[in-house]
Design a protein that fits this description.
It contains 4 helices and 9 strands; from the N terminus they run E-E-E-E-H-E-E-H-E-E-E-H-H. The strands form 3 sheets. It has a 4-stranded mixed sheet, sandwiched between helices. The protein has one domain: Nucleoside Triphosphate Pyrophosphohydrolase, CATH 3.90.79.10. It is of the alpha+beta class. The longest helix is centred in the middle third of the chain and has 13 residues. The two termini are 19 Å apart. The C terminus is likely disordered. Helix content is 24%, strand content 33%. It is globular and about 40 Å long.
């Protein structure tokens, strides 16, 4: 039996309280999402977060803190890929945000945390919900109701 993969997502907040959101394309199209990617063997959560954010956005993030863990069952139900995501937070960054991987993301933009466009990638949606509610885990009710 195949085991879940591990993802890392990062909520990056600017001085206006807005968070960085990307409009994905390719395998994650048409979803909106915070920056993130895969945890590689031997990486800490912080190393993966710093690497993925720089690879995707050109931003150098610092002073990371843990937000939550998400069990991304909606993605599993939709495309048969099961991931568990570790989600981090930073409001300390430098650099100019740009699309470094145009094959994966159309654009990055700063967005009010209560006005994230839909559809949202489930790992990102749960991470933002946890961040807003100051919780480290939220039960995925949609999937629990179908079990």
């Amino acid at each position: 039996m195949k085991r879940p993969g591990v993802g890392v997502g990062v909520i990056i907040q600017n001085s206006k309280g807005e968070i960085l959101i990307g409009k994905r394309k390719g395998s994650h199209s048409p979803y909106y999402s915070i920056p993130g990617g895969h945890l590689e063997n031997g990486e800490s959560f912080e190393e993966a977060a710093i690497k993925e954010v720089f690879e995707e956005t050109n931003l150098i993030i610092k002073n990371l803190s843990f937000v939550c863990v998400t069990n991304n069952l909606k993605t599993f139900k939709e495309i048969n890929k099961h991931y568990v995501s570790i989600n981090m937070f930073s409001n300390d960054f430098e650099g100019e945000c740009k699309v470094n991987e145009p094959e994966k993301c159309e654009e990055w933009f700063w967005c009010n945390i209560n006005e994230i466009p839909n559809p949202q990638f489930d790992a990102s949606e749960f991470a933002i919900e946890c961040f807003k509610e100051k919780k480290s885990y939220i039960v995925n009710e949609q999937m629990n109701n179908s079990l």
